[in-house]
Amino acid sequence: MSCLVGKDQLVWGAYCHPSPVALFPAPTMPWSLLLPPLLLLAVSGAQTTRPCFPGCQCEVETFGLFDSFSLTRVDCSSLGPHIVPVPIPLDTAHLDLSSNRLEAVNESVLAGPGYTTLAGLDLSHNLLTSISPTAFSRLRYLESLDISHNGLAALPAESFTSSPLSDVNLSHNQLREVSVSAFTSHGQGRALHVDLSHNLLHRLVPHPVGASLPAPAIQSLNLAWNRLRSVPDLRDLPLRYLSLDGNPLAIVGPGAFRGLEGLTHLSLGSLQGLPRLAPYGFRELQGLQVLDLSGNAKLKWAGPEVFSGLDSLQELDLSGTGLVPLPEMLLLRLPALQSISVGQGVQCRRLVREGSYPRQPSSSPKVALHCVDTRERAAKGPNAL
Q1: What are phi and psi of 83, to 5 degrees?
Q2: Which domain range does residue 361 map to?
Q3: Are 133 and 156 in contact (CB under 8 A)?
Q4: pTM, two decimal places
Q5: What is d(CA 47, CA 68) in angstroms, rounded to the nearest whole number?
Q6: What's the domain count of the chain?
Q7: Residue 144 domain-assigned?
Q8: Which spans in 44-191 are helix H?
Q9: 158-175: string of b/e by CB count within 10 Å (b at 16+)?
Q10: What is the pLDDT of residues 334-354, one digit of tens each?
Q11: Among the four 3, 7, 30, 207, which has the fewest Cβ within 10 Å?
Q12: Is residue 278 part of a domain?
Protein backbone atom coordinates (compact mmCIF):
# COMPACT_ATOMS: atom_id res chain seq x y z
CA MET A 1 0.00 0.00 0.00
CA SER A 2 1.39 3.45 -0.84
CA CYS A 3 0.20 6.97 -0.26
CA LEU A 4 1.49 10.40 -1.15
CA VAL A 5 2.69 12.35 1.93
CA GLY A 6 4.85 15.07 0.40
CA LYS A 7 5.99 16.52 -2.81
CA ASP A 8 8.53 13.79 -3.48
CA GLN A 9 7.91 11.09 -0.83
CA LEU A 10 5.85 7.92 -0.71
CA VAL A 11 5.02 5.85 2.34
CA TRP A 12 5.15 2.09 1.72
CA GLY A 13 3.50 0.46 4.71
CA ALA A 14 5.38 2.07 7.61
CA TYR A 15 8.44 3.34 5.78
CA CYS A 16 9.15 6.47 3.73
CA HIS A 17 11.01 6.09 0.43
CA PRO A 18 11.80 8.65 -2.25
CA SER A 19 9.63 8.51 -5.32
CA PRO A 20 11.32 7.86 -8.68
CA VAL A 21 11.45 11.59 -9.36
CA ALA A 22 13.31 12.36 -6.13
CA LEU A 23 16.86 12.39 -7.46
CA PHE A 24 18.38 14.47 -4.67
CA PRO A 25 19.39 13.27 -1.16
CA ALA A 26 17.32 14.08 1.90
CA PRO A 27 18.08 17.39 3.61
CA THR A 28 20.64 17.34 6.43
CA MET A 29 18.87 19.85 8.63
CA PRO A 30 15.27 20.75 9.57
CA TRP A 31 13.42 22.73 6.92
CA SER A 32 12.78 25.51 9.43
CA LEU A 33 16.49 26.22 9.57
CA LEU A 34 16.52 26.89 5.84
CA LEU A 35 13.78 29.53 5.94
CA PRO A 36 14.19 33.19 6.85
CA PRO A 37 12.46 33.75 10.24
CA LEU A 38 10.11 36.46 8.94
CA LEU A 39 9.02 34.33 6.00
CA LEU A 40 8.49 31.39 8.35
CA LEU A 41 6.18 33.41 10.55
CA ALA A 42 4.31 34.83 7.61
CA VAL A 43 3.41 31.55 5.97
CA SER A 44 3.27 29.01 8.83
CA GLY A 45 0.21 27.71 10.60
CA ALA A 46 -1.45 24.97 8.55
CA GLN A 47 -1.61 21.63 10.40
CA THR A 48 -2.75 18.29 9.04
CA THR A 49 -2.31 14.59 9.80
CA ARG A 50 -0.47 12.08 7.68
CA PRO A 51 -0.16 8.28 7.49
CA CYS A 52 2.10 7.02 10.25
CA PHE A 53 3.58 3.90 11.82
CA PRO A 54 0.75 1.77 13.26
CA GLY A 55 -0.23 3.14 16.66
CA CYS A 56 1.65 6.42 16.21
CA GLN A 57 0.20 9.80 15.31
CA CYS A 58 1.83 12.17 12.83
CA GLU A 59 0.88 15.85 12.74
CA VAL A 60 2.26 17.95 9.89
CA GLU A 61 2.80 21.69 9.93
CA THR A 62 3.49 23.25 6.54
CA PHE A 63 5.57 26.32 5.72
CA GLY A 64 6.56 28.35 2.72
CA LEU A 65 4.78 29.44 -0.41
CA PHE A 66 2.32 26.81 -1.60
CA ASP A 67 3.14 24.71 1.50
CA SER A 68 6.47 23.73 -0.03
CA PHE A 69 8.08 22.73 3.30
CA SER A 70 6.76 20.68 6.20
CA LEU A 71 7.71 19.61 9.70
CA THR A 72 6.16 16.61 11.42
CA ARG A 73 5.54 15.83 15.09
CA VAL A 74 5.41 12.09 15.71
CA ASP A 75 3.71 10.75 18.85
CA CYS A 76 4.57 7.09 19.55
CA SER A 77 3.93 7.18 23.30
CA SER A 78 2.38 4.38 25.38
CA LEU A 79 2.74 1.65 22.74
CA GLY A 80 5.26 -0.68 24.40
CA PRO A 81 8.97 -1.53 24.02
CA HIS A 82 8.45 -3.22 20.64
CA ILE A 83 8.09 0.24 19.10
CA VAL A 84 11.84 0.88 18.73
CA PRO A 85 13.39 1.35 16.36
CA VAL A 86 10.39 3.01 14.76
CA PRO A 87 10.52 4.44 11.20
CA ILE A 88 9.54 8.10 11.02
CA PRO A 89 9.02 10.61 8.17
CA LEU A 90 12.10 12.39 6.86
CA ASP A 91 10.86 15.81 8.01
CA THR A 92 10.19 14.81 11.64
CA ALA A 93 11.02 17.66 14.03
CA HIS A 94 9.80 16.14 17.32
CA LEU A 95 9.51 12.48 18.37
CA ASP A 96 7.64 11.33 21.48
CA LEU A 97 8.70 7.89 22.76
CA SER A 98 7.50 8.38 26.33
CA SER A 99 5.76 5.72 28.46
CA ASN A 100 6.90 2.75 26.37
CA ARG A 101 8.70 0.74 29.09
CA LEU A 102 11.97 1.16 27.19
CA GLU A 103 14.93 -0.33 29.06
CA ALA A 104 17.77 0.74 26.74
CA VAL A 105 18.48 3.45 24.18
CA ASN A 106 21.60 3.40 22.05
CA GLU A 107 22.89 4.80 18.79
CA SER A 108 21.18 2.15 16.67
CA VAL A 109 17.77 2.97 18.17
CA LEU A 110 18.15 6.65 17.28
CA ALA A 111 19.48 6.14 13.77
CA GLY A 112 17.97 6.07 10.34
CA PRO A 113 16.05 8.51 8.11
CA GLY A 114 14.27 11.25 10.03
CA TYR A 115 16.32 10.93 13.23
CA THR A 116 19.37 12.95 12.26
CA THR A 117 17.29 16.12 11.89
CA LEU A 118 15.29 15.79 15.13
CA ALA A 119 14.97 19.01 17.15
CA GLY A 120 13.02 17.47 20.06
CA LEU A 121 13.04 13.99 21.65
CA ASP A 122 10.90 12.78 24.58
CA LEU A 123 12.06 9.61 26.38
CA SER A 124 10.34 10.33 29.68
CA HIS A 125 8.42 7.81 31.81
CA ASN A 126 10.36 4.76 30.62
CA LEU A 127 12.55 2.18 32.40
CA LEU A 128 15.95 3.49 31.35
CA THR A 129 18.72 2.76 33.85
CA SER A 130 21.69 3.79 31.69
CA ILE A 131 22.53 5.70 28.52
CA SER A 132 25.14 4.75 25.96
CA PRO A 133 27.85 7.46 25.66
CA THR A 134 27.13 7.63 21.92
CA ALA A 135 23.34 7.35 22.12
CA PHE A 136 22.78 10.91 20.85
CA SER A 137 25.92 11.24 18.71
CA ARG A 138 23.97 11.41 15.43
CA LEU A 139 21.41 13.95 16.59
CA ARG A 140 23.28 17.03 15.36
CA TYR A 141 20.25 19.37 15.56
CA LEU A 142 18.67 18.19 18.83
CA GLU A 143 17.63 21.16 20.98
CA SER A 144 15.21 19.66 23.53
CA LEU A 145 15.68 16.33 25.34
CA ASP A 146 13.40 14.90 28.05
CA ILE A 147 14.64 11.81 29.94
CA SER A 148 12.72 12.51 33.14
CA HIS A 149 10.93 9.86 35.22
CA ASN A 150 13.34 7.01 34.49
CA GLY A 151 15.83 5.06 36.61
CA LEU A 152 19.11 6.55 35.41
CA ALA A 153 21.86 5.92 37.95
CA ALA A 154 24.75 7.49 36.02
CA LEU A 155 25.35 9.94 33.20
CA PRO A 156 28.41 9.40 30.97
CA ALA A 157 30.80 12.34 30.60
CA GLU A 158 30.22 14.47 27.49
CA SER A 159 26.95 12.64 26.81
CA PHE A 160 25.57 15.49 24.70
CA THR A 161 28.70 16.71 22.93
CA SER A 162 27.26 16.30 19.44
CA SER A 163 23.92 18.06 20.05
CA PRO A 164 23.27 21.84 20.34
CA LEU A 165 20.90 21.35 23.27
CA SER A 166 19.06 24.23 24.91
CA ASP A 167 16.86 22.19 27.29
CA VAL A 168 17.67 18.92 29.11
CA ASN A 169 15.22 17.41 31.60
CA LEU A 170 16.75 14.68 33.81
CA SER A 171 14.41 15.12 36.77
CA HIS A 172 12.96 12.20 38.73
CA ASN A 173 15.82 9.73 38.19
CA GLN A 174 18.29 7.94 40.49
CA LEU A 175 21.39 10.03 39.76
CA ARG A 176 23.79 10.24 42.71
CA GLU A 177 26.71 12.06 41.12
CA VAL A 178 26.87 14.06 37.90
CA SER A 179 29.79 15.71 36.15
CA VAL A 180 29.13 19.19 34.81
CA SER A 181 31.15 18.12 31.74
CA ALA A 182 28.31 15.77 30.78
CA PHE A 183 26.49 18.82 29.38
CA THR A 184 29.35 20.14 27.28
CA SER A 185 28.28 20.47 23.67
CA HIS A 186 29.13 22.10 20.38
CA GLY A 187 26.17 24.43 20.75
CA GLN A 188 28.33 27.50 20.14
CA GLY A 189 27.48 29.04 23.50
CA ARG A 190 23.71 28.50 23.28
CA ALA A 191 22.02 29.09 26.63
CA LEU A 192 21.23 25.75 28.30
CA HIS A 193 18.55 24.90 30.85
CA VAL A 194 19.25 21.74 32.90
CA ASP A 195 16.70 20.16 35.26
CA LEU A 196 18.26 17.68 37.73
CA SER A 197 15.57 17.99 40.38
CA HIS A 198 14.21 15.02 42.33
CA ASN A 199 17.30 12.83 42.08
CA LEU A 200 19.68 11.47 44.72
CA LEU A 201 22.52 13.87 44.00
CA HIS A 202 25.05 14.35 46.75
CA ARG A 203 27.77 15.83 44.53
CA LEU A 204 28.31 17.71 41.28
CA VAL A 205 31.76 17.24 39.77
CA PRO A 206 33.11 20.62 38.50
CA HIS A 207 34.25 21.10 34.93
CA PRO A 208 38.01 20.32 34.94
CA VAL A 209 40.46 23.15 34.44
CA GLY A 210 42.24 22.91 31.09
CA ALA A 211 39.63 20.61 29.51
CA SER A 212 39.66 20.35 25.72
CA LEU A 213 36.09 21.65 25.51
CA PRO A 214 34.86 24.81 27.29
CA ALA A 215 32.51 24.66 30.26
CA PRO A 216 28.87 24.14 29.26
CA ALA A 217 26.77 27.29 28.82
CA ILE A 218 24.32 26.40 31.59
CA GLN A 219 22.27 29.49 32.46
CA SER A 220 19.44 27.78 34.34
CA LEU A 221 20.07 24.88 36.75
CA ASN A 222 17.42 23.15 38.85
CA LEU A 223 18.94 21.05 41.66
CA ALA A 224 15.85 21.01 43.87
CA TRP A 225 15.04 18.06 46.10
CA ASN A 226 18.33 16.21 46.05
CA ARG A 227 20.76 15.30 48.85
CA LEU A 228 23.23 18.15 48.61
CA ARG A 229 24.59 19.15 52.02
CA SER A 230 26.57 22.09 50.67
CA VAL A 231 26.34 24.47 47.72
CA PRO A 232 28.15 22.71 44.83
CA ASP A 233 31.10 24.29 43.06
CA LEU A 234 29.52 25.88 39.99
CA ARG A 235 32.16 28.45 39.12
CA ASP A 236 32.87 29.07 35.42
CA LEU A 237 29.19 28.44 34.58
CA PRO A 238 27.26 31.45 33.23
CA LEU A 239 24.41 30.77 35.67
CA ARG A 240 21.54 33.22 35.98
CA TYR A 241 18.96 30.95 37.69
CA LEU A 242 19.74 28.39 40.41
CA SER A 243 17.33 26.36 42.55
CA LEU A 244 18.52 24.37 45.57
CA ASP A 245 15.07 23.96 47.11
CA GLY A 246 14.51 20.99 49.40
CA ASN A 247 18.17 20.03 49.86
CA PRO A 248 19.62 19.27 53.33
CA LEU A 249 22.02 22.24 53.20
CA ALA A 250 23.62 22.58 56.60
CA ILE A 251 25.01 26.08 56.15
CA VAL A 252 25.30 28.83 53.57
CA GLY A 253 28.57 30.56 54.39
CA PRO A 254 31.20 32.82 52.84
CA GLY A 255 32.45 31.59 49.47
CA ALA A 256 29.48 29.30 48.86
CA PHE A 257 28.60 31.13 45.63
CA ARG A 258 32.10 32.03 44.50
CA GLY A 259 32.28 32.59 40.75
CA LEU A 260 28.53 33.18 40.34
CA GLU A 261 28.52 36.96 40.10
CA GLY A 262 26.07 36.81 37.18
CA LEU A 263 23.37 34.94 39.13
CA THR A 264 20.07 36.88 39.15
CA HIS A 265 17.61 34.38 40.70
CA LEU A 266 18.39 32.09 43.66
CA SER A 267 15.88 29.78 45.35
CA LEU A 268 16.65 28.16 48.72
CA GLY A 269 13.10 27.26 49.71
CA SER A 270 12.02 24.44 52.04
CA LEU A 271 15.55 23.36 52.94
CA GLN A 272 15.63 20.12 54.95
CA GLY A 273 17.07 19.93 58.45
CA LEU A 274 18.12 23.08 60.30
CA PRO A 275 19.66 25.45 57.74
CA ARG A 276 21.93 28.23 58.93
CA LEU A 277 22.68 31.42 57.05
CA ALA A 278 26.13 32.63 58.05
CA PRO A 279 27.17 36.29 57.79
CA TYR A 280 28.42 37.30 54.34
CA GLY A 281 27.18 34.06 52.79
CA PHE A 282 25.73 35.92 49.79
CA ARG A 283 28.53 38.45 49.41
CA GLU A 284 29.62 37.17 45.97
CA LEU A 285 26.15 37.65 44.47
CA GLN A 286 26.37 41.31 43.54
CA GLY A 287 23.98 40.81 40.59
CA LEU A 288 21.29 38.86 42.45
CA GLN A 289 17.81 40.34 41.95
CA VAL A 290 15.49 37.69 43.46
CA LEU A 291 16.15 35.60 46.61
CA ASP A 292 13.62 32.99 47.75
CA LEU A 293 14.02 31.68 51.32
CA SER A 294 10.38 30.67 51.76
CA GLY A 295 9.23 27.53 53.54
CA ASN A 296 12.16 27.39 55.99
CA ALA A 297 10.22 27.26 59.25
CA LYS A 298 13.38 26.65 61.30
CA LEU A 299 15.35 29.48 59.76
CA LYS A 300 16.34 32.00 62.42
CA TRP A 301 17.67 35.55 62.29
CA ALA A 302 21.47 35.77 62.09
CA GLY A 303 22.01 39.49 61.81
CA PRO A 304 22.01 42.01 58.97
CA GLU A 305 25.43 40.81 57.75
CA VAL A 306 23.68 37.79 56.23
CA PHE A 307 22.47 39.97 53.37
CA SER A 308 25.69 41.91 52.98
CA GLY A 309 26.71 42.46 49.36
CA LEU A 310 23.24 42.08 47.85
CA ASP A 311 23.28 45.54 46.36
CA SER A 312 21.07 44.56 43.37
CA LEU A 313 18.45 42.55 45.29
CA GLN A 314 14.90 43.65 44.39
CA GLU A 315 12.67 40.83 45.71
CA LEU A 316 13.05 38.83 48.92
CA ASP A 317 10.68 36.01 49.92
CA LEU A 318 10.70 35.17 53.65
CA SER A 319 7.20 33.68 53.83
CA GLY A 320 6.92 30.55 55.95
CA THR A 321 10.14 31.28 57.88
CA GLY A 322 10.97 32.19 61.45
CA LEU A 323 12.23 35.59 60.32
CA VAL A 324 10.21 38.64 61.27
CA PRO A 325 9.81 41.57 58.86
CA LEU A 326 13.17 43.17 58.25
CA PRO A 327 14.01 46.16 60.41
CA GLU A 328 14.14 49.44 58.57
CA MET A 329 17.86 49.85 59.25
CA LEU A 330 18.52 46.71 57.19
CA LEU A 331 16.83 48.27 54.16
CA LEU A 332 19.75 50.67 53.97
CA ARG A 333 21.98 47.63 53.34
CA LEU A 334 19.70 46.54 50.48
CA PRO A 335 19.48 49.73 48.40
CA ALA A 336 17.63 48.15 45.46
CA LEU A 337 15.09 46.15 47.48
CA GLN A 338 11.49 46.84 46.41
CA SER A 339 9.34 44.08 47.96
CA ILE A 340 9.46 41.47 50.71
CA SER A 341 7.07 38.58 51.30
CA VAL A 342 6.66 37.67 54.98
CA GLY A 343 4.22 35.60 57.00
CA GLN A 344 1.28 34.03 55.21
CA GLY A 345 0.19 36.22 52.33
CA VAL A 346 1.78 39.39 53.70
CA GLN A 347 3.53 41.56 51.12
CA CYS A 348 5.74 44.45 52.17
CA ARG A 349 6.98 47.20 49.89
CA ARG A 350 9.72 49.71 50.35
CA LEU A 351 8.73 53.34 50.97
CA VAL A 352 11.11 56.27 50.89
CA ARG A 353 9.89 59.28 52.81
CA GLU A 354 11.67 62.45 51.83
CA GLY A 355 9.95 64.77 54.32
CA SER A 356 8.82 68.35 53.87
CA TYR A 357 12.20 69.80 53.02
CA PRO A 358 14.94 68.66 50.64
CA ARG A 359 17.50 66.34 52.19
CA GLN A 360 21.02 67.44 52.89
CA PRO A 361 23.56 65.79 50.55
CA SER A 362 25.13 63.87 53.43
CA SER A 363 21.89 62.63 54.97
CA SER A 364 20.12 59.34 54.31
CA PRO A 365 16.49 59.06 53.17
CA LYS A 366 13.88 57.81 55.61
CA VAL A 367 13.09 54.27 54.54
CA ALA A 368 10.14 52.25 55.80
CA LEU A 369 8.21 49.08 55.06
CA HIS A 370 4.53 49.21 54.13
CA CYS A 371 2.97 45.76 54.66
CA VAL A 372 -0.39 44.55 53.36
CA ASP A 373 -2.20 41.27 53.98
CA THR A 374 -3.05 40.23 50.42
CA ARG A 375 -5.62 37.71 51.68
CA GLU A 376 -7.68 40.42 53.40
CA ARG A 377 -7.49 42.65 50.34
CA ALA A 378 -8.69 39.80 48.12
CA ALA A 379 -11.56 39.04 50.50
CA LYS A 380 -12.80 42.65 50.32
CA GLY A 381 -13.10 42.46 46.56
CA PRO A 382 -11.33 44.16 43.69
CA ASN A 383 -13.06 47.52 44.22
CA ALA A 384 -12.36 47.83 47.93
CA LEU A 385 -9.88 50.46 49.11
Answers
A1: -70, -30
A2: 230-385
A3: yes
A4: 0.81
A5: 13
A6: 1
A7: no
A8: none
A9: bbbbbbbbbebbbbbbeb
A10: 889 998 888 666 788 877 655
A11: 3
A12: yes
